[in-house]
Amino acid sequence: MFFLTKRKAETKKFSVIRYLYLLSFPLLATYILFFRTDERLLKVFIFFSIFGAVIEWLVGFFYHKVVGQKLWTYHYFPWFNSYTSWMSMPLWGLAGVMFWLVARMYV
Fold this sequence. Notes:
Strand order of the largest sheet: 1-2
Helix content: 55-70%
Structural class: mainly alpha
Number of strands: 2
């Protein structure tokens, strides 16, 4: 359906407020689930925050070394030569929590 529109998509500049708004509901839900379910949820969040950022860095670094150009570049709060960002860590943690909760349903 994108080809039927005549307007170009708006590109909005980065804003810390928008970023915090984006993370507010998932982080609040994780916080509530932490007290209602299992204390391991916080450990899962921290583990996947670190694990996801390290894997993202490894993929970006090796892609850059093999192909010769960066796969992605972070401009805000870059970390490890801008292959990852401090701001991606909560997203990795939330993804890990969701994965862990879904896995608990089926295991």
